[in-house]
């Protein structure tokens, strides 16, 4: 195993043993937002920052955006210094993971003895720990999905010995996980949709589109305003103006476009006449190729 996993991992859509040692485990109990637990992490606990090493952390789009803007870095520079490109085994889609250090513990590059240097913009995995969220596709669940929570308990963690009591909902709000969930949910739904195809590879162009939207908001914004995108899709002018400057709005538009481009879902409305023009061009190509003859003849 490359490293221990914490909280919600992009590839974990069902409860699986997330272990580093025999005593590190996911508690096999499905939790709700009202479920209660005791936990507190602070500099006074003996294990402070022990959970910040040898971790496999996938960086969804909003996590990556927050980190690179915190550091004042371009996407390319951030990936070169702090990231690694990996292919998720269950989706065959490319994602960015946080590169651990080369020290013996394989520490997070942002951890110090005094704590996290990017704490306000830390990834959602770090915000959730020791809780986690999973999404299952179930026939009897609303919309075909079932979101629930679980608890990760590691043998070194002393946070559970603290007397601070939370509900899962209170913990998520306190840690700022709600915003991250909202901003990354569309991306996660794309992963789940792709997973339903099994290990079927998509054309490379679709993988590149997914990677572009997931990692580089600047490049995607240039694509929206510098290509025929706005001539093709019927986007309200008010939304267009928001997308010009608001990265959150841009990400949401990106998720909708990906679902349209990757799965042919009607998430974005095509402008009147565009579909007919595309059909006319396709027919013209066929006539040119087959010289007016029946293409099956």
Summarize the structure.
The protein is of the alpha+beta class and 297 residues long. It has helices at residues 61-70, 75-82, 124-128, 168-175, 177-195, 204-215, 217-226, 229-232, 237-245, 247-263, 274-290, and strands at 25-31, 36-38, 83-87, 94-98, 111-112, 115-116, 131-137, 145-153, 165-167.
Percent helix, as a range, is 40-55%
Q: What is the terminal-to-terminal distance?
A: 56 Å
Q: What's the overall geometry?
A: elongated
Radius of gyration, in angstroms, nearest whole number:
22 Å
Mean pLDDT: 85
Strand order, largest beta sheet: 1-8-7
* Amount of beta strand: 5-15%
Put simply, the count of helices is 11
The total of beta strands comes to 9
Question: Could you explain how this protein is built, in words?
Answer:
By secondary structure, the protein is an alpha+beta fold. It folds into two domains: 25-186, no CATH class; 216-297, no CATH class. Helix content is 40%, strand content 14%. The strands form four sheets. A three-stranded antiparallel beta sheet has the order 1-8-7, with no helix packed on it. A two-stranded antiparallel ribbon has the order 2-9. The chain has a two-stranded antiparallel sheet with strand order 3-4. Helix 5 (177-195) packs parallel to helix 10 (247-263), helix 6 (204-215) runs antiparallel to helix 10 (247-263) and helix 9 packs across helix 10. The protein is elongated and about 75 Å long.
